[in-house]
Amino acid sequence: MSGDILSQNEIDALLSALSTGEMSAEDMKAEEETRKVKVYDFKRALRFSKDQIRSLTRIHENFARLLTTYFSAQLRTYVQINVASVDQIPFEEFIRSIPNMTLINIFEVPPLDGNILMEVNPNIAYSMLDRLMGGVGASPGKVDNLTEIETKIMTNLFERSFDNLREAWSGIIDIDPYLKEMEVNPQFLQMISPNETVVVISFNIMIGESSGMINICIPHVVLEPIVPNLSVRYWMQSNKKEPTPEQSILLERRVKTAPLPIVAELGQGQMTVEDFLHLQVGDVISLDRKIDEPLIIKVGNIPKFTGQPGHLRSRMAVQIIETRIGGDEDDE
Known about the structure:
Layout lengths: L7 H13 L4 H12 L13 H26 L3 E12 H7 L5 E6 L6 E6 L1 H11 L15 H21 L9 E6 L13 E11 L2 E10 H4 L8 H7 L6 H12 L5 E4 L7 H5 L17 E5 L2 E11 L2 E9 L9
Antiparallel strand pairs: 1-5, 2-3, 2-4, 3-6, 5-6, 7-8, 8-9, 9-10
Helix pairs in contact: 3-6
C-alpha cells in the first residue's frame, strides 16, 4: 500500500471501513506485514549471482560458436548452435527434465574436481551418427542402446569437441577435459545429491533439417574453487595482465635479434618507359644527388641516417655521419 497512490474514492471507502468497524488499524498493519513476506524455496537455493551467470553465458556463447565450426566440418553439413538459456536448478530437477533414454557424456575437467554432464537430445545424436556413417542426417525417431561401433564413433566425435571447451574456458582457467563414460539412461546417474545446485546451459542446435537440444550440467561443487573468477571485475583485470620478467627478457632478446634491411641510397632518377626499353650496357643514368653529398641510409625503407661511402677491409662500406631528424618520414 505504501507504494500505491489511492484515489479520493478509495480514501473515502477506507475511512468508511475504519469508522464502521469493518476493518481495524491492526488488520491493516497485519496485511501490510504479510505482503512483505516472500516465499523462499530452500530446495532451490541460488548459489550463483547474476553477474556470475552472465559470465557463464559469455563463456558458453563462445563455446557455441566454436562447436558450430567444429560440427560443420565433422558432419559436412550446415550446423547452427546458440545458447538458449542458462539456469541454476537442483540436480534432481535437471534429471527429471531430460528424456528417459538419451545420450549423456560424463567427463571430468582437471584441475577441477567432479564430473560434468553433456546431454544430447536423441534426435540430434542419431542425426549426427547418420551423417558420420554417410547418411543424409535423418533420425530414426526412436532411442536404443548404441552398438560398440556406434559408441566408438560418437565417443571420438565428442572427445575431439572438448578442445573447443578448453579454448572457451581458457580466459578463466586452463582445463583438460576428457570423456569418462557415455550413458543413455539418466536414472543410472548418481553424481551428486539430488538437492545440489547445478548450472544448466541449454543450446539449440540444428543439423540440416533436424533440430534439438544439448544441455551441459555443471554442479556447483565443480565451479566452487573458481566462483570468484566468474565476476566482471576478474575479467577486466585478466585483460590487463602485465608481462612477467621472463617474458620481457625473452621479448627483448627476440627483438634484438630480428633482422632489419638497411639500404644506402646513392640517389634517384627518372626516365620514360621508352628510354628504359632502350637501355644498353654502358649507358649512364643520371641521379638527383651530387657525388659530394652524403648518402641517405634507410632502415626498413625509412630514412634514418646520413653517411658517406668508403671501404673497410676490401669491402664497400658506409660511415654514418648523423641521425636524421624526423626519420620516420620519407625522403621523397
